[in-house]
Amino acid sequence: MSQVLHASDWFSIRTNAKGDEYVASTGDEVLVVALTANGDVLLSIEPSAAFSEPTLILPGGQVEPNVPDAEMANRELQEEIGYRANQLDFLGEVHPWSKYLAVRTFVYLARDLQESSLPGDEEYEIGVEPVSLLSFETLIAGGRLRDARVIAALFLARAFLQRTAFNGGTDAANPTATPTSLHFIDKFDEYKFFIEDTARLSERRQTVNNVYVAVNTILLSAVALLITTADVNRWVAGMAAYAALLGGMAVCLSWRQLLQRYKALTGLRFDELRKMEDLPEMTGCQRMYHVEDRLYPRDGEGQMHQKHRRNFSDLERQLPNIFIGLYIIFVIGTAIGFVVGA
């Protein structure tokens, strides 16, 4: 049997059934993620008795007997940040410290906020700080947001909104939920998607280069074989060689045009990735496309300086020109050979 070692209105401490471990309890609580119309979460700034410094937390409080959790959530909103929610969604239940703390935290998402205040029981003034739900990780990285319950609640809220957005505005786990008007896409995930898409585009471009190099190699080998073959009528061989040479040059022109299109597509993606690295949501990340500016400096308008403008795409475009040059040499050489042979 467990034994109660201490009990008060605020918390209790008891041993477990074996009597060798302590279990603390402060009572179940609600925690509310209050979301504004522009996608900001309203965090409250309150003093921390444990760490003697202001802390960022979410509105919330202990559950009271015979009071519905949703009603408690709205009451805490009005007491702490001066709003009430016309729409409340239950996000889930978290346990702050499952092994030793017998507390359940019920997390709610509050939307469609309107100003409404109730007197609270705090003896200090509560500050309110709006924080973007898309970039609250910057507060974690900066050491301002450390409360595990709050961090878990924010991730739950963002995942819920992403899930409802991708299911046409309804929660797949709760189809009767009111559709959300806010469609959140994590900017870092979007950035990673464009990185991967750009890499796939570069791989396709390399495949195109390999195919065209192989085709041109085959054509040049065929031309050389036709020119040097003695068993075939040299006029027939010459005409076939000229046809292959002209076909090869046409292939090279098509190749060069395709490389120009790939350059435009990859250039567009690189420019957009640079813009994404400047977004507030990317603060604290290593901005690799900006780091490349050390090698390829840009002007005030973001354009690469003239002396650095030749890039890998420009070098690739020289390959078709090289093959065209080889075809021209073959044409001239073949013509001279026929004149001399005649």
Q: Can you walk me through this structure?
A:
This protein is 45% helix and 19% strand. It has 2 domains: 4-166, Nucleoside Triphosphate Pyrophosphohydrolase, CATH 3.90.79; 187-341. The chain is α+β, with helices and mostly antiparallel strands and 342 residues long. Strand 2 and strand 3 (22-25) form a beta hairpin. Helix 4 runs antiparallel to helix 5 (234-277).
Low-confidence stretches are 166-184
CATH class of the largest domain: Alpha Beta
Distance from first to last alpha carbon? 114 Å
Total strands: 10
Task: Count up the domains.
Answer: 2
Keywords:
342 residues; alpha+beta; Nucleoside Triphosphate Pyrophosphohydrolase; four-stranded mixed beta sheet; three-stranded antiparallel beta sheet; 10 strands; 19% strand; rod-shaped
Describe, in short, the structure shown:
This protein has 342 residues and is an alpha+beta fold.
SSE topology sketch:
Blueprint: E1 4-7, E2 12-15, E3 22-25, E4 29-34, E5 40-48, E6 53-57, E7 60-62, H1 69-80, E8 83-94, E9 105-115, E10 127-132, H2 137-141, H3 148-166, H4 187-228, H5 234-277, H6 288-291, H7 312-316, H8 318-341
Parallel strand pairs: 4-9
Antiparallel strand pairs: 1-2, 2-3, 4-7, 5-6, 5-10, 8-9
Helix pairs in contact: 4-5, 4-8, 5-8
